[in-house]
Design goal:
Number of helices: 16
Strand content: 15-25%
Oligomer: single chain
Bound molecules: adenosine-5'-triphosphate, magnesium ion
Strand order of the largest sheet: 1-5-6-11-10-9-7-8
Helix content: 25-40%
Number of strands: 16
Radius of gyration: 28 Å
Largest sheet: 8 strands, mixed
Shape: elongated
Distance between the termini: 68 Å
Length: 442
């Protein structure tokens, strides 16, 4: 028998692993994600933004036409493939294009304004590292049909409120810039190209390529050898058209009035072609080079570019992985976001199993916020106690022969040096309430 036949008969037992740069979200982390997502959902309701959910896959042309052919995303990062019909499809690398496509397709932009938000996985074939993955998750906000700086300010205020709710506001910086009108950008582009040509020797390979395709992106370069030359480059801020200038001044005044601090960063250009006028990023120094937590701006030309009527629009997207990393790095994860149990109900032997299940149900009726788990699966008393300890719960509620006979329960502290207590089952809900709320564990 040849080896190829043998391997054909016996399938490989090698374990199959997840795709590089694509993460499983494990139980130990999911409570923190839910905590962040819960804050996001509440926030969107409070500002009157409605959720939109679109497919994860779209026609490739949608991203090429919106994000731009000569951007990093479209040139090298998209997961593009042919489906069985031969159509070119792409796993969405970001959410704005899909959101615009859906809003147009369903007439949501027809003579009306929209304030929308979305969340979900995005896909980019980047080099995986801390804070940078190939499947990552964004929350995004998009507002359509509003052209004034008030809506720009609102989206920024909304994001600021999220940082405040999560305790992050002091740890992030708002960077602002204006990219002006497309005419102003075109004129500035010529000025900029002339400047870069004068300093051609200093440009790295990437920048030389961009000099032809997308010169403004050179300003975004993180190459330290180019830093000084880029700082001295002509600024679009000094070449803005009057209307964009006024728009930017008004936005700044609104942020000032709301007490939101910012720094103007004339080199902030963003990596997607559809932006114009306002652009902004919320950045942190706590995450190394993946320091942008949230990024966005105005994209008044995009709807038209995708075949719709001219529609002003502004939005942002934030990366949940980076937000979660930041909360962990700064030790801002509250106890409620750790997914811990309050109580572990422990039948001391099998004769108490049913009673433990029932007591669990009664407690959940009485205390909707209680996080309770009932021991299942039998075992010796010793192994049951071990499970209780490992559950991470603060309290064990023990049910044995005596407890069943007198309708009581033994309450044992699992994480504190404290005498165990015996309580009547009828009073248990009250006891737990005062214990868990009035006397949180240190
Ligand atoms: P960066 O400059 O870090 O590559 P970007 O400009 O490509 O970011 P956007 O496309 O504006 O980012 O996406 C908005 C947010 O989504 C980013 O600020 C970041 O928090 C998050 N994000 C983008 N790409 C990734 C990724 N590969 N992995 C994790 N988060 C990401
Ligand atoms: Mg990127």
């Amino acid at each position: 028998m040849s080896t190829s036949q043998a391997s054909h008969k016996e399938p490989s037992r090698k374990k199959i692993q997840a795709i590089r740069g694509m993460n499983d979200l494990l139980p130990a982390q999911s409570a923190l994600w839910q905590y962040v997502e819960g804050h996001v959902q509440t926030l969107m309701k409070r500002y009157g933004y409605a959720e939109i959910r679109t497919p994860i896959i779209e026609q490739t042309a949608l991203f090429k036409r919106s994000i731009g052919e000569v951007t990093d995303i479209v040139e090298k990062e998209m997961y593009t493939f042919e489906d069985r019909n031969g159509d070119s499809l792409t796993l969405r690398p970001e959410g704005t294009a899909s959101c615009v496509r859906a809003a147009m397709e369903h007439g949501l932009l027809h003579n009306q304004t929209q304030r929308l938000w979305y969340q979900g996985p995005m896909f980019r074939h980047e080099r995986p590292q801390k804070g940078r993955y190939r499947q990552f998750h964004q929350v995004g906000v998009e507002a359509f049909g509003l052209e004034g700086p008030d809506i720009d300010a609102e989206t920024i205020l909304l994001s600021a409120r999220l940082w405040k709710a999560l305790g992050l506001y002091e740890h992030v910086t708002l960077e602002l810039n204006s990219l002006g009108s497309s005419q102003a950008r075109a004129a500035y582009r010529d000025t900029l190209v002339a400047y870069f040509e004068q300093h051609y020797a200093l440009l790295d390979e990437d920048s030389r390529r961009r000099l032809i395709s997308n010169p403004m992106r050179i300003l975004d370069s993180k190459n330290p050898a180019m830093a000084e030359m880029l700082d001295a480059a002509p600024r679009l801020m000094d070449h803005l058209d009057d209307a964009s200038h006024a728009h930017f001044e008004q936005l700044c005044a609104m942020l000032d009035a709301a007490g939101i601090g910012y720094v103007i960063n004339p080199r902030l250009v963003r990596g997607l072609d559809y932006y114009g006028r306002t652009v902004f990023e919320w950045t942190t120094t706590a995450l190394g080079s993946q320091g942008t937590v949230c990024a966005g701006g105005r994209y008044d030309g995009l709807v038209e570019q995708l075949g719709g009527k001219p529609t002003p629009a502004v939005g942002f997207a934030l990366g949940i992985e980076r937000l979660v990393l930041l909360l962990e790095t700064l030790e801002l994860v509250p106890d409620t976001a750790r997914g811990e149990l309050d109580v572990y109900l422990l039948p001391m032997d099998d004769s108490a199993n049913a009673a433990a299940l029932l007591l669990g149900e009664r407690l959940r009726e009485a205390l909707p916020a209680l996080r309770a788990q009932v021991h299942c699966g039998g075992g010796s008393f010793k192994s049951r106690m071990k499970k209780a300890d490992r559950s991470g719960a603060r309290l064990a509620l023990l049910l044995g022969e005596d407890e069943l006979a007198e309708r009581s329960v033994t309450l044992k502290f699992l994480r504190e040096e404290r005498e165990q207590q015996r309580h009547r089952q009828a009073e248990l809900a009250e006891t737990l309430t005062s214990l868990l709320e009035g006397d949180p564990v240190a």
